[in-house]
Design goal:
The protein is an all-alpha fold. Helices cover 52% and strands 1% of the residues.
Length: 318
């Protein structure tokens, strides 16, 4: 009898555990929004989103919010990532003005247009709850490569490594580091402009603030890091001292990948529109730079100052 109840108790515990897990995690195929909510979302979408993303979500000046391309981007993340993107960065002309509930309503409308079924319960405007909703494994049609006899053009290096560093990587990193002390969401004042002039007429953080908003500049800087890190691996590029960049060195490759990953992490943090999140990730960017500099740039030894810019003869080699 005790053996029976022991086994029976285990079954109950396992069943309860499975039911708890099922209640905790859902997919968008399980009716996570209500029809009435999607109707509200449609009204918000037409008013705040359609001018960029099109009346039918097929895209206009902004990307499509339905179809294979959309699913390829967002189906790898919980639903909270899509909602956070909308909540923090949209509409582009007035980012951060939608409430979490309005955001959830718009997401419900996107799911409806994407032919995901409605249910009886509304999608909650709660970031933690949205993290528990995932996308099912979705078969996405991959575009077929186009047949062409023309080869892609090759792009030999136009500058040496130091020029790439100082022209792209340094200013982009500096924008991210500046977030530690400057809130990108704050308004630029007349005092900021005066400070810029006193500092020599140029400030990496403020250079485009008259055209782009502060958070957009941080986005662009992070993307620049991620996209330009592979330029460190361009065959034929030379160091400032004329020596070839060690593009086949395993450690050089590792550090280049580390910088690209740091740029991607910085972009994700920037999308949160949270100064503290970007300040925290700036240490990851700094470490990625430092790891490479310690081995390939900062030469050490008697009479050598690793911080001396004139110490160039031994750079790019271990």
């Amino acid at each position: 009898m005790s053996s029976f109840f022991g086994r029976f108790g285990v079954v109950i515990l396992l069943s309860s555990s499975m039911a708890f897990q099922a209640a905790q995690t859902q997919t968008v195929r399980q009716g996570v929004y209500a029809e009435s909510q999607a109707m509200r979302g449609q009204t918000i979408y037409k008013d705040r989103c359609a001018s960029c993303h099109g009346d039918g979500l097929a895209g206009r000046v902004g990307p499509a919010l339905m179809g294979d391309g959309f699913l390829t981007v967002w189906s790898k993340e919980p639903l909270s990532e899509l909602a956070a993107k909308i909540r923090n960065t949209m509409p582009q002309t007035e980012p951060g003005t939608l409430t979490w509930q309005q955001t959830a309503d718009v997401v419900a409308y996107i799911l409806q247009v994407g032919k995901f079924p409605a249910g009886r319960t509304e999608l909650r405007g709660d970031e933690q709850a949205l993290k528990e909703i995932t996308w099912p494994a979705i078969g996405v049609t991959q575009p077929k490569p186009t047949q062409t006899s023309a080869q892609a053009p090759s792009f030999p290096p136009a500058g040496n490594l130091a020029q790439v560093m100082r022209g792209i990587l340094f200013p982009s990193s500096n924008i991210i580091f500046t977030v530690q002390t400057v809130d990108p969401g704050g308004k630029k004042t007349a005092a900021d402009s005066a400070t810029t002039k006193q500092e020599g007429g140029f400030n990496w953080m403020l250079w485009g603030a008259d055209i782009y908003k502060g958070w957009e500049l941080v986005d662009y800087a992070a993307v620049a890091l991620a996209e330009s890190a592979p330029l460190m691996l361009t065959p034929g590029r030379r160091c400032e001292n004329g020596k070839p960049v060690p593009v086949n060195d395993p450690e050089w490759i590792k550090f280049s990948v580390e910088l690209a990953d740091a740029g991607k992490a910085a972009y994700k943090a920037s999308q949160s529109r949270n100064q503290e999140a970007v300040s925290d990730i700036s240490s990851v960017v700094a470490d990625a730079c430092l790891h490479c500099h310690q081995i390939y740039r900062d030469k050490r030894g008697p009479g050598l100052n690793p911080g001396d810019p004139s110490n160039k003869a031994g750079r790019c080699v271990k």
